């Protein structure tokens, strides 16, 4: 069931949602959250597809905010709201409203979104590509408990981590971090077993890859050892090595699918470690809506470290945090030993 | 609800705040006896694959099949492959399969064959070397209970039942856990002789269902239900597990056992315990078991078993568009069999919360449709300030926990019918748990197998619970043995007329589920 509304208002969209529900005979549904996707025409299709898939696990009302401020002064002067209400099969298990905001209205998206939020249910805001610098104070971000950005989609993925760290508000999270969960859980499981003390570590992955960077930061933060960042051809992260007195604990994934885990004194084993689709990442994000303290600790640990290398001149050009960060991946930087910083207890 | 998981506080990569990291089982393997059976093919192997696909199995996980069939490792792997492709819930992915297939082994032999168990032993040793399973193995006895003594004795004899050092060995057994108290005690003795009680996991797959675990969340995470969850507000409780199928090919197993032993003793009494128990101090298995034992211990049978229990057998009839045979006409069933395919009993719980509130339990085969639910029926409002006639169609408020299919919770209450006159009629409010969450919610066996590997015994009935359940059922079975015979009911209906009379005697009626 699809209803197109041109030059409309939030109130009429609400009526449209109820009409659409009635028409297909399910007036009430157990939607658990509102997912606001802030995007442009180019990325809207993929983002909506992923959100619909994720809605099978988390039935939600999906509001896609597409800003079209217009190119000419005349277009910018006018303001118009067009909406597309989709309920039923093609909208996953919940309902979807695509909101196209023309002209000046593009600067007041929150005024359209607020009346359309589900009563009493959590709100999640997702920027599939360009996210505001400080998601927590963005007018749309402020409506949400949980704000999902994606550093990997930025022009400068590693630099954008610094931006994320500086603008961090509890409830922020980043898909570059979500992508790490299988790696992190496998590494944690490996360290559940007896092993001798870890002296240092290395993380290998594509250049300009925010996830690889975050993984190195996480290890440096948690283990309190020096973590070397090495550049490989990818795809994504290719290997993690933890050096111990008895030999290396190594998780090596060269093809983006199947990894090999080797632990001293144990046979090598294969582990499925597939790179995941956006829908799976979003589904994981929606599972927990409370602030992710480990992400905070990791990304903040990173910014501290990046700044300190820049200032002490170890970085290549030392031009401030963003520049330092941008310069790091090709230069195979060393993530700091960091000491016992930020154990976040 | 995991409290018995090993202490991993020493691991710097783990943090209680890091809730994204799932519980992954430590190095281990699963050995399935009777691996060629239906359960293994349709449930166990797919569940193992799904766990691997969700990244919850340790790297190097081993799956060993033990059966009489002449198979090589490759044949077994192929069999697992086919079973997984057909029955797994998560999509088939080559790399996950590759990871799993490397750890597949098959041991051919009979249960009294010493060489086969020696082979099993060397297979385990080989796996420890090649896969790093660390000597941790769970033995899943997917075989008829008459083979249990044989298998566990063989495991003991060949030194397989005890791990060395810190490694563990666990036994997993499926129902039936005996057919009465004495046989259940025998069985427990046999198994506990070889495995310590806390390493024996009894599978009641109902307890692995999300909806059953949700009973605890519904009751103990909310404030809304607990104040009315007692004799002041509850009129009675109906717990139903209905199947629409007959006995199928299970004549040999089913005849002489019957519905009450097959279902009431385990599933329904467990559901009763979860519905009626007091709040446990924590979700530690010990605390949970203590509360379940307390409430099962307070269960009181009716004085007149003839009036308050009913058993039946399905009869030849048309069911849902098909002509089906009656129980006595099924192949392999003695035409004079007195085995019950339907059983309904009334129980009371003697404690402050529930005194005087009857719990009606019923189960049967070839009933109207497949459904399992717990219905808590509330008392009528003490006074209705409406005109006479206005509330004629108003029934009793009810809260129904739908266990399967269509998992969820329904609340039934009165509402005004739109119009100028005042008329109140029953309406329902639905929470559909299954509809929206099934896609990702794990299958019961997945959860239970993972819990076995993690050593988390929360969702497994302890032997005391099993024995207590038999003490409840034994007098009923003894009474049935001596008095009368099962009433006949047409297949596809909701049981014999006697069952309706049983409730009518108390001024109540069965819900149509």
Mean of residue pLDDT of chain A? 82
How much β-strand is present in the residues of chain B? 15-25%
Give a count of the beta strands of chain A, DSSP E runs of length 2 or more.
Answer: 15
Strand fraction of chain A equals 25-35%
The main β sheet of chain B shows up as: 10 strands, mixed
Percent of residues in helices of chain A comes to 25-40%
Q: How far apart are the first and last residues' alpha carbons of chain B, in Å?
A: 31 Å
In terms of per-residue confidence, which ranges of chain A show pLDDT below 50 for 5 or more consecutive residues? 306-345
What form of chain B results from the Cα inertia axes? globular
Write down the Rg of chain B.
24 Å
What order do the strands of the largest sheet of chain A run in, or round the barrel if closed?
1-4-5-3-2-6-7-8
Pattern of helices and strands of chain A: EHEHEHEEHEEHEHHEHEEEEEHHHE
Helical residues, percent of chain B: 25-40%
**Mean pLDDT rating of chain B:** 88
Number of beta strands of chain B: 18
Whole-number tally of structural domains of chain A:
2
Please, how many helices of chain B?
15
Protein name (chain B): Glucose-6-phosphate 1-dehydrogenase
Domain Glucose-6-phosphate dehydrogenase C-terminal (chain B): 216-511
Active site (chain B): 267 (proton acceptor)
Organism (chain B): Actinacidiphila bryophytorum
What is the topological layout?
The complex is a heterodimer of chains A (345) and B (513).
Chain A: E1 2-5, H1 10-24, E2 33-39, H2 41-54, E3 60-68, H3 73-77, E4 79-87, E5 95-103, H4 109-113, E6 123-126, E7 146-149, H5 157-166, E8 172-174, H6 175-178, H7 181-192, E9 198-205, H8 210-223, E10 226-231, E11 237-244, E12 247-252, E13 258-262, E14 269-272, H9 278-287, H10 293-311, H11 321-327, E15 334-335
Parallel strand pairs in A: 2-3, 2-6, 3-5, 6-7, 7-8, 9-10
Antiparallel strand pairs in A: 1-4, 4-5, 9-11, 10-15, 11-12, 12-13, 13-14
Helix pairs in contact in A: 2-9, 5-10, 5-11, 8-10, 10-11
Chain B: E1 29-33, H1 38-53, E2 62-67, H2 73-87, H3 94-101, E3 104-108, H4 114-131, E4 137-141, H5 148-157, E5 169-174, H6 181-194, E6 200-203, H7 210-220, E7 234-242, H8 251-254, H9 258-276, H10 285-297, E8 299-300, H11 305-308, E9 309-315, E10 317-319, E11 322-324, E12 342-349, E13 358-364, E14 371-378, E15 398-404, E16 408-416, E17 424-432, H12 433-437, H13 444-454, H14 463-482, E18 487-490, H15 497-504
Parallel strand pairs in B: 1-2, 1-4, 2-3, 4-5, 5-6, 7-13, 9-18
Antiparallel strand pairs in B: 7-14, 8-12, 9-12, 10-11, 12-13, 14-15, 15-16, 16-17
Helix pairs in contact in B: 1-2, 1-13, 5-6, 6-14, 9-10, 9-14, 10-14
Pathway (chain B): Carbohydrate degradation; pentose phosphate pathway; D-ribulose 5-phosphate from D-glucose 6-phosphate (oxidative stage): step 1/3
Domain Glucose-6-phosphate dehydrogenase NAD-binding (chain B): 31-214
GO biological process, one term (chain B): glucose metabolic process
């Amino acid at each position: 069931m699809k209803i197109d509304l041109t030059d409309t208002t939030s109130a009429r969209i609400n009526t449209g949602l109820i009409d659409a529900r009635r028409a297909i005979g399910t007036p009430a549904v157990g939607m658990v959250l509102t997912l606001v996707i802030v995007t442009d025409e180019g990325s809207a299709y993929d983002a909506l597809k992923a959100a619909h898939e994720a809605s099978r696990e988390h039935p939600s009302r999906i509001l896609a905010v597409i800003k079209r401020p217009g190119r000419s002064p005349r277009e910018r002067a006018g303001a118009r709201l067009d909406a597309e209400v989709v309920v039923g099969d093609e909208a996953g298990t919940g309902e979807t409203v695509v909101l196209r905001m023309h002209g000046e209205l593009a600067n007041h998206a929150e005024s359209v979104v607020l009346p359309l939020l589900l009563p009493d249910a959590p709100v999640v805001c997702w920027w599939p590509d360009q996210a505001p610098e400080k998601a927590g104070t963005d007018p749309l971000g402020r409506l949400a408990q949980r704000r999902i950005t994606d550093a990997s989609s930025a022009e400068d993925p590693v630099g954008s981590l610094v931006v994320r760290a500086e603008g961090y508000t509890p409830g922020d999270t980043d898909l570059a971090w979500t992508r790490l969960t299988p790696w992190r859980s496998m590494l944690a499981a490996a360290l559940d077993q007896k092993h001798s003390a870890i002296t240092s570590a290395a993380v290998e992955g594509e250049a300009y890859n925010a996830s690889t960077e975050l993984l190195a930061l996480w290890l440096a933060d948690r283990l309190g050892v020096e973590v070397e960042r090495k550049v490989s051809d990818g795809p994504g992260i290719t290997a993690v090595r933890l050096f111990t007195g008895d030999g290396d604990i190594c998780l090596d994934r060269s093809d983006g699918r199947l990894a090999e885990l080797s632990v001293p004194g144990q046979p090598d084993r294969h582990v499925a470690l597939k790179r995941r689709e956006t829908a799976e990442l979003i589904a994981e994000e929606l599972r927990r809506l409370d602030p992710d303290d480990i992400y905070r600790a990791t990304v903040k640990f990173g910014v501290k470290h990046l700044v300190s290398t820049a200032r002490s001149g170890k970085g290549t050009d030392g031009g401030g945090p963003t520049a330092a960060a941008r310069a790091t991946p090709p230069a195979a930087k060393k993530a700091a030993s960091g000491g016992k910083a930020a154990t976040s207890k | 609800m995991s409290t018995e998981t090993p202490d991993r506080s020493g691991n710097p990569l783990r943090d209680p705040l890091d809730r994204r990291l799932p519980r992954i089982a430590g190095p281990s393997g699963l050995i399935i006896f009777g691996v060629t059976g239906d359960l293994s093919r349709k449930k166990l192997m797919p569940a193992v694959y799904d766990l691997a696909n969700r990244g919850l199995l340790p790297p190097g996980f081993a799956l060993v099949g033990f059966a009489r069939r002449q198979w090589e490792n490759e044949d077994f792997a192929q069999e697992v492959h086919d079973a997984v492709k057909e029955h797994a819930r998560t999509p088939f992915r080559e790399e996950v399969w590759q990871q799993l297939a490397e750890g597949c082994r098959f041991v051919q032999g009979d249960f009294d064959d010493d060489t086969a168990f020696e082979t099993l032993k060397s297979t385990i040793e080989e796996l420890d070397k090649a896969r790093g399973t660390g000597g941790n193995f769970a033995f899943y006895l997917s075989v008829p209970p008459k083979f249990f003594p044989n298998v566990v004795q063989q495991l003991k004899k060949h030194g397989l039942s005890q791990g060395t050092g810190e490694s563990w060995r666990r036994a997993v057994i499926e129902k039936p856990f005996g057919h009465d108290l004495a046989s259940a005690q025998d069985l427990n003795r046999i198994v506990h002789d070889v495995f310590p009680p806390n390493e024996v996991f009894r599978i009641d797959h109902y307890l692995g269902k999300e909806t059953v675990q949700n009973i605890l969340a519904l009751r103990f995470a909310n404030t809304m239900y607990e104040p009315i969850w007692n004799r002041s507000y509850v009129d009675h409780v109906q717990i139903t597990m209905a199947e629409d199928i007959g006995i199928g090919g299970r004549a040999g197993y089913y005849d002489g056992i019957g519905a009450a032993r097959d279902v009431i003793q385990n599933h329904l009494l467990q559901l009763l315990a979860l519905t009626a128990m007091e709040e446990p101090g924590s979700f530690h298995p010990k605390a949970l078991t203590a509360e379940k034992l307390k409430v099962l211990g307070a269960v009181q049978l009716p004085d007149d078993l003839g009036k308050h229990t009913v058993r039946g057998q399905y009869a030849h009839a048309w069911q849902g568009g098909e002509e089906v045979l009656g129980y006595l006409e099924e192949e392999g069933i003695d035409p004079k069999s007195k085995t019950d395919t339907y059983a309904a009993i009334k129980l009371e719980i003697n404690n402050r919360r529930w005194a005087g509130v009857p719990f009606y339990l019923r189960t049967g085969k070839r009933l109207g449709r497949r459904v399992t639910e717990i219905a808590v029926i509330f008392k009528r409002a003490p006074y209705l300030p409406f005109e006479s006639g206005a509330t004629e169609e108003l029934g009793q408020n009810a809260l129904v926990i739908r266990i399967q299919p269509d998992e969820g919770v329904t609340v039934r209450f009165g509402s005004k019918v739109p119009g100028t006159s005042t008329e109140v009629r029953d309406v329902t409010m639905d929470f559909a748990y299954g509809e929206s969450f099934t896609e990702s919610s794990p299958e019961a066996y997945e959860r239970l197998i993972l819990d076995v590997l993690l050593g988390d015994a929360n969702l497994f009935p302890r032997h005391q619970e099993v024995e207590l359940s038999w003490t409840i059922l034994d007098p009923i079975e003894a009474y049935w043995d001596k008095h009368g015979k099962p009433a006949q009911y047409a297949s596809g209906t909701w049981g014999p007329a006697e069952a309706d009379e049983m409730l009518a005697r108390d001024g109540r009626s069965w819900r149509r589920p």
